[in-house]
Amino acid sequence: MSENPILVTGATGKSGSRVAARLRAAGLPVRAASRGGEHTFDWADGRTWDSALEGVRAAYLVQVDGTRFVRPFVERAVRHGVRRLVLASGRGIDDPDYANDPGGVRDALLDSEAAVRESGLEWTISRPGWFAQNFSEGFFAEAVAAGELRLPGGDGAVSFVDAEDIAAVVVAALTEAGHSGQIYELSGPEALTLAEAVAAISTAAGREIRYVPLSVEDFVAEQVAQGIPAPEAAGFADVLEPLRNGTDAHVSDGVQRALGREPRTFAEFARSTAAAGGWSV
C-alpha cells in the first residue's frame, strides 16, 4: 500500500502544487498530474485517465469549473481500485443565491460532490473560500504588484483562506484516518474587505498599494479598453459578486476540525509572501 502513489490532479495549481510538495516532504510517492506537468493528464481527454489512475491508492481531484468530468472519472477510479478520494469543491455551492452563475459552475460542483459521495470509496470534500494567494499568484497578483487593484468589489468582506491551510487539510484527508465522509468548509479566521487586505499587503511589502473600488459598468469598460472581450469582462465581474455582497464573509471551522488548529491569518500570509520576495518591484 505504501508504494502505491497518491494522484494529485491540477498539480501545477495553487492547491495541487502545495499538496504534492507536502506529500513529497513526508516521503510519500506522488503522481503529479496536469496538462503540462510531470505526468500528462487532461480532464477533457479520457485517454489520459487510465495512466493517471494505474496503481493509485488515493487521489486529489481538482476539477475544471463548469465541467462534468468528475463523475465518469470517479467511475474509472473505482475500476482501478482507488480507495480514497479528496475532492476540491467550493464554498457557497449549497446556497443558490451565493452568486450569479451563468456558466453552471454550481450545478457541476454539486454533481461532482454527489459522484464522490456515491462512489462507495472513502471520500472527503474540501470547500475552500477565496484563496489569499489570489493576491500573489492569481487573479489580482499583477495589479497588486503594480501598486493598484481596481475591482468591482465594493466594501464587502471576505474570509480569505491561505492555500497552505487548504493543502494541509487535503494531505491530512489523503493520508490519515478520521476524515472519511467529512465536508470541510475552509476559510481564514477573519473577514477582511479588499481595502483591508490590500492594506495588510502594503504593510508587509513596505510600499503603498491601493484598492480602487469600481462599479461593474466601469470595470467592464476598463477591461474592454484593455482588449478583454466584453463577455469575458462581465463574467469576471460576476465571479466577484460574492465579494461585493459579502456572502463569503462568514468564518468556517473546517481547518480547525481537520487539523486541530486555527487557520493562518491574512497578515501572516502577507508577511510570509513578502519575505519570500512577493510583490517586489
UniProtKB/TrEMBL annotation:
It comes from Saccharopolyspora kobensis. This is Uncharacterized conserved protein YbjT, contains NAD(P)-binding and DUF2867 domains. Pfam families: NAD_binding_10. InterPro entries: Ergot_Alk_Oxidoreductase, NAD(P)-bd_dom, NAD(P)-bd_dom_sf. Residues 10-176 form the NAD(P)-binding domain. The lineage of its organism: Bacteria, Bacillati, Actinomycetota, Actinomycetes, Pseudonocardiales.
